[in-house]
Design a protein that fits this description.
The chain is mainly α. The chain has helices at about 5-10, 15-20, 25-35, 55-70, 75-95, 135-150, 150-185, and strands at about 110-115, 120. It has one domain (about 5-200). Helix 1 packs antiparallel against helix 3 and helix 1 (about 5-10) packs parallel to helix 6 (about 135-150).
């Protein structure tokens, strides 16, 4: 799934907090957003492996959420929703496509790496690929309740994220065709830092 879907899911996890403890809800929304984003910081360094922990994030969240419920504070709520967002992200990656430049071709059996099992988890492809129409629909479904309850900067954050999701959906396939051509123009010293999937040949 695309990053906008992940961060909107992380924020949506904080909606119950908005109902029961509105004072701490903004912390939960921001932490959920950051947690949903964090695993993809490994995009250029072992993507879906270096910062993706489908088991460990979930276990940590199981500990952090009761702590936040028992001792609610800025720190405990931020930790709980950050971990929930990260856990949701890595679990959702399993439901999407494999780790490849053109996932609609279904050439990869690697969805996300489980450090606990020491193996790659295969993709389920309930969402065909990141940026697919159903991925955008999921982003929109997650954004609607957030846009209803939020105001100010958080509202703008959600609206901006949804706009990015729309743009990425429109450009996903053209970008996949363009990437290998751009990579071929890069100087040799840069190439070791470019993920292998961007050096693939072929079109869409």
């Amino acid at each position: 799934m695309m990053l906008p879907t992940h961060v909107l899911a992380g924020m949506a996890l904080a909606l119950p907090l908005w109902a029961v403890n509105p004072e701490l809800a903004p912390v939960g929304f921001v932490a959920g957003f950051l947690g949903g984003m964090f695993p993809d910081l490994d995009l250029y360094a072992g993507h879906r492996k270096t910062l993706h922990y489908p088991v460990y994030y979930a276990v940590a969240a199981v500990i952090a959420v009761p702590l936040a419920a028992t001792v609610p504070s800025t720190a405990t709520v931020a930790l709980a929703f950050f971990l929930l967002g990260a856990a949701c992200h890595t679990a959702a990656d399993v439901l999407g496509a494999g780790l490849e430049l053109r996932p609609w071709e279904r050439n990869s059996d690697r969805a996300v790496y489980s450090h606990y099992h020491g193996a790659w988890v295969r993709p389920r492809r309930l969402v065909r690929y990141d940026g697919a129409v159903e991925d955008l629909a999921l982003s929109a479904a997650l954004a609607v309740p957030l846009l209803v309850v939020l105001t100010g900067r958080l509202w703008l954050l959600v609206a901006g994220t949804l706009a990015v999701a729309l743009g990425y959906t429109l450009l996903r396939r053209p970008l996949a065709a363009l990437a290998p051509r751009v990579v071929r123009l890069l100087p040799d010293p840069v190439l070791p830092y470019v993920p292998d999937r961007y050096r693939e040949d072929g079109g869409v």
